[in-house]
């Protein structure tokens, strides 16, 4: 369970998020939508305790975390995983070492067991055989998937995904969507997913929330949001639909093929 | 009037920045000491760093101190031959080398080689979100990145300093012999009367202080790097400049405190 209460975040005088209220229950998947630069990554970073908040409260598994020491937050973070928008892989380590990082530091597992877990995670993101590569030898999409494998390594209770499918082809997108669902169905993970991919969002999320001008302007099922009368919400969906349509047209499908 | 106000404003901003910088350094140092105090040191990383920092820096440190010792020796021997004070050349060189030049020169070279490497490595991790990734994996960047580098420097810089002193003294003897025909016994004659263990201990204390300075400044610059590749470059330069200035300043201060009586 993760909860934000009236959270406000500012960089200097630039208030990015204002009075954000969000509660994600155990086993729930919530997607965050919004234009580029609206503060989606900032929201995830705050939930992970990576940036300070100006006001409000953040709770993880019922424990208040926004005012605790970094060392105490590290204990909380052992139950959390974050997929960074740009991957943020450790570039001095191999793919294997990246995924094994938390397992080696926070568990007493034997090297053989770690190897098994890492291989399983890499397989789940379709990257078996890449374990000895270094991050600079990977494509953008591969890096993103290593980031996912690394975040999932410890089977965390809470998962924060920052655009996990952006830049992936449709097959890999489907793989990642399956993976996000599997983490919930099999391990009961609570997830927040930032995405621009409405189709993926409607497949994975129980609920979506849209940020505009630093606030949530709509919350609910994707279908509900799509039907919203709010001009900002409907503009977003109209544009996204048009973009998706353009994408489909490029792939040789009629724009309204699945309408 | 406007100019004057702007002038004082910029001084005020500079002073605030100075205070903020000190705050950052103290913060990182305190946090590092917390982990060192609990012996939560990552030894494998520390050992790697020790060889990268210490062993690989030795050749260049030895070159720098050797030439310094040689020019000192050249100057002193030429004068000493004229005034008939050749039995003081060795003592003077050994004294100044151990007490001042070996610690300072070793530290300055290491600041250039290692302080810059620390700042650029940690700085590029900062701008590519790898520091945040470490934190998200419940790993404290101070414990994981700063402590091993600081420990490695604190162990290696005194060692490098001791060898630097020995090498520079040997090289200055070679010059004294070539230029003034000084025998080893003559060169070393007055060393025991001037050089006592206190200056050796003082030199080691200096080396430890310089090691902490280089590590902390490199880490502060790295951990607070902003602005992409340009920011990494700026952090690297700052790390070298700031730690060099601090080394010279600190050296003067420590010499006053450690050796109030002179030889
Ligand atoms: N470290 C920072 N310092 C100053 N401003 C920042 C910082 N990080 C983010 N911002 C600002 O906060 C706002 C939100 O940024 P954020 O990265 O959260 O956007 P986003 O919704 O994730 O966008 P995108 O979809 O493009 O990833 C932006 O206006 C950005 O300029
Ligand atoms: Mg973002």
Which helices and strands, and how do they pair?
The complex is a heterodimer of chains A (259) and B (263).
Chain A: E1 2-11, E2 14-24, E3 29-34, H1 40-47, E4 55-60, E5 63-64, H2 70-77, E6 80-83, H3 95-106, H4 111-124, H5 140-152, E7 158-162, H6 170-187, E8 190-194, H7 198-204, E9 207-212, E10 215-220, H8 222-226, H9 231-250
Parallel strand pairs in A: 3-8, 3-9, 6-7, 7-8
Antiparallel strand pairs in A: 1-2, 1-4, 4-5, 9-10
Helix pairs in contact in A: 3-4, 3-5, 4-5
Chain B: H1 2-37, H2 43-53, H3 58-83, H4 89-127, H5 130-136, H6 141-180, H7 184-188, H8 191-194, H9 197-223, H10 228-258
Helix pairs in contact in B: 1-6, 1-9, 2-6, 3-4, 3-6, 4-6, 4-9, 4-10, 6-9, 9-10
Bound molecules: adenosine-5'-triphosphate and magnesium ion.
Residues 11, 16, 34, 36-42, 85 of chain A line the site of adenosine-5'-triphosphate.
Write the H/E string of chain B, N to C: HHHHHHHHHH
Low-confidence stretches of chain B: none
- What overall geometry of chain B do the principal axes of the alpha carbons give? globular
Q: What Rg of chain A is obtained from the alpha carbons, in whole angstroms?
A: 19 Å
Mean pLDDT of chain B: 92
Strand order of the largest sheet of chain A: 6-7-8-3-9-10
Oligomeric status: heterodimer
Which features would summarize this protein structure in a list?
heterodimer, A: 259 residues, alpha/beta, 6-stranded mixed sheet, 4-stranded antiparallel sheet, disordered C terminus, B: 263 residues, 10 helices, globular, binds adenosine-5'-triphosphate, binds magnesium ion
Describe this structure in words.
The complex is a heterodimer of chains A (259) and B (263). By secondary structure, chain A is of the alpha/beta class. Chain A has nine helices and ten strands. Chain A has helices at residues 40-47, 70-77, 95-106, 111-124, 140-152, 170-187, 198-204, 222-226, 231-250, and strands at 2-11, 14-24, 29-34, 55-60, 63-64, 80-83, 158-162, 190-194, 207-212, 215-220. A six-stranded mixed sheet of chain A has the order 6-7-8-3-9-10, sandwiched between helices. A four-stranded antiparallel sheet of chain A has the order 2-1-4-5, with helices on one face. In chain A, helix 3 (95-106) packs parallel to helix 5 (140-152) and helix 4 crosses helix 5. The radius of gyration of chain A is 19 Å and the shape is globular. The two termini of chain A are 36 Å apart. The model of chain A is unreliable at 252-259 (pLDDT under 50). Chain B is an all-alpha fold and 263 residues long. Chain B contains ten helices and no strands. In chain B, helix 4 runs parallel beside helix 9, helix 6 packs across helix 9 (197-223) and helix 9 (197-223) packs antiparallel against helix 10. The longest helix of chain B is centred in the middle third of the chain and has 40 residues, at 141-180. Chain B starts with a helix and ends in a 5-residue tail after the last helix. The structure holds adenosine-5'-triphosphate (ATP) and magnesium ion. Residues 40-41, 85, 162 of chain A line the site of magnesium ion (MG).
């Amino acid at each position: 369970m993760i909860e934000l209460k009236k959270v406000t975040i500012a960089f200097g005088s630039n208030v990015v998020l204002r009075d954000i209220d969000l509660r994600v229950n155990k086993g729930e998947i919530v997607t965050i939508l919004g234009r580029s630069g609206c503060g989606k990554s900032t929201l995830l970073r705050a939930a992970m305790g990576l940036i300070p908040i100006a006001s409000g409260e953040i709770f993880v598994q019922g424990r208040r975390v926004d005012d605790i020491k970094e060392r105490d937050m590290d204990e909380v973070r052992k139950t959390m995983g974050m997929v960074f928008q740009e991957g943020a892989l450790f570039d001095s380590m191999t793919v294997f070492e990246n995924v094994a990082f938390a397992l080696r530091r926070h568990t007493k597992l034997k090297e053989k067991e770690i190897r098994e877990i890492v291989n399983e995670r890499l397989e789940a993101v379709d990257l078996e055989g890449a374990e000895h590569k270094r991050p600079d030898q990977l494509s953008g999409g591969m890096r993103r998937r290593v980031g996912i494998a690394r975040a999932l390594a410890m089977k965390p209770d809470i998962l924060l995904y920052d655009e996990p499918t952006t830049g992936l082809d449709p097959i890999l997108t489907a793989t990642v969507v399956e993976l996000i669902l599997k983490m919930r169905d099999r391990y009961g993970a609570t997830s927040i997913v930032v995405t621009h991919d409405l189709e993926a969002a409607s497949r994975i999320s129980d609920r979506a929330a849209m940020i505009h001008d630093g606030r949530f302007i709509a919350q609910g099922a994707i279908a509900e949001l799509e039907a919203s009368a709010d001009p900002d919400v409907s503009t977003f969906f109209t544009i996204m639909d048009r973009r998706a349509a353009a994408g489909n047209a490029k792939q040789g499908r009629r724009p309204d093929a699945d309408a | 009037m406007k100019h004057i106000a702007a002038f004082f404003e910029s001084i005020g901003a500079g002073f605030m920045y100075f205070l903020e910088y000190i705050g950052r350094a103290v913060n990182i140092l305190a946090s590092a000491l917390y982990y060192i105090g609990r012996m939560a040191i990552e030894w494998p990383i520390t050992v790697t760093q020790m060889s990268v920092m210490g062993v690989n820096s030795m050749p260049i440190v030895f070159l720098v101190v050797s030439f310094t010792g040689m020019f000192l020796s050249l100057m002193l021997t030429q004068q000493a031959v004229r005034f008939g004070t050749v039995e003081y050349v060795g003592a003077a060189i050994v004294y100044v080398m151990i007490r001042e030049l070996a610690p300072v020169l070793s530290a300055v070279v290491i600041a250039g080689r290692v302080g810059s490497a620390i700042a650029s490595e940690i700085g590029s991790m900062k701008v590519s979100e790898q520091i945040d990734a470490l934190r998200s994996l419940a790993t404290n960047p101070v414990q994981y990145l700063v402590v091993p580098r600081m420990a490695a420097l604190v162990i290696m810089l005194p060692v490098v300093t001791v060898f630097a002193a020995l090498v520079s003294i040997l090289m200055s003897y070679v010059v004294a012999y070539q230029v003034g025909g000084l025998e080893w016994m003559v060169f070393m004659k007055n060393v025991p009367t001037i050089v006592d263990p206190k200056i050796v201990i003082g030199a080691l204390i200096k080396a430890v202080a310089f090691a902490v300075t280089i590590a902390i400044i490199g880490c502060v610059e790295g951990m607070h790097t902003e602005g992409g590749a340009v920011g990494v470059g700026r952090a690297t330069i700052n790390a070298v400049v700031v730690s060099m200035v601090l080394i010279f300043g600190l050296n003067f201060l420590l010499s006053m405190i450690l050796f109030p009586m002179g030889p």
